Amino acid sequence: MASRLETLTTVLQAALGEQCVSAATAHEELTIVVKPADWLAVAQKLRDAPELKFEQLIDLCGMDYSAYGHVEGEGSWDGARYAVVYHLLSITYNCRLRVRVFAVDDDFPVLDSVIGAWPSANWYEREAFDLYGIMFTGHPDLRRLLTDYGFIGHPFRKDFPLSGNVEMRYDPEKQRVIYQPVTIEPREITPRIVREEQYGNSEGFRKG
Fold it and tell me: SS in 3 state form for 21-59?
């Protein structure tokens, strides 16, 4: 007898056909990949098709795959750099689905907004824009959500400096908040290591 995930996979592949690029199961959850050109049509099917009924968008998040799977001395990720991952819930059938859509252009990542299908996408898309710089065509109010409006860059991108580009402080002379170059020197902190021979030995730990 087929499991619930196997049944869901079969139903999705039948409903979406070639619009479903791939389907994979991990950690008891199904993930499908959809081409960006098909995403709006697929979103409508996922929400409205009687055999699917994914009525709720629980979450969506941006992804930067530029360093994904990188191992010293070996190749790294060779696919598109940016993607958006959507987490959907079918209340009717009590099941979840993860959808991954990659942006075509690494220099200017753009995907269609799905606010028309799931209004809850509004602030999630703003967050993905703010933190990853992913644009959403058709979003009615795409502006920063978590960082300051004058913030430069997108802090969740893998190439964004850990210390940032500028810092903000209150200037008592000008009596306003100002931006200035970062004054914190970037440094790497190496955690203290507890040696195996001292593990569990409180006396040795105090000496070490």
Answer: EEEEEECCEEEEEECHHHHHHHHHHHHHCCCCCCCEEEE
4 in the Ramachandran plot: left (φ > 0), alpha (ψ -120 to 50) or beta?
A: alpha
Query: Side chain identity at 199, as an amino acid letter?
Result: Y
Q: Hey, CA dihedral for 167, 171, 174, 175, is it positive or negative?
A: positive
| CA distances in angstroms from 101 to 7, 45, 165, listed in the order given | 22, 15, 30
Contacts of 113 (CB under 8 A, 6+ apart): 121, 125, 136, 137, 138, 139, 142
Pick the CATH number of 4-147 from 3.30.2010.10, 1.10.10.10, 3.30.460.80, 3.40.50.300: 3.30.460.80
Tell me the per-residue pLDDT of 67-103, one tens digit each, with 9 for 90 and over. 887 655 555 678 899 999 999 999 999 999 999 999 9
* DSSP assignment string, 106-157: SSS-EEE--TTT-TTHHHHHHHHHHHH--EEET-TT---SSS-TT--S-TTS
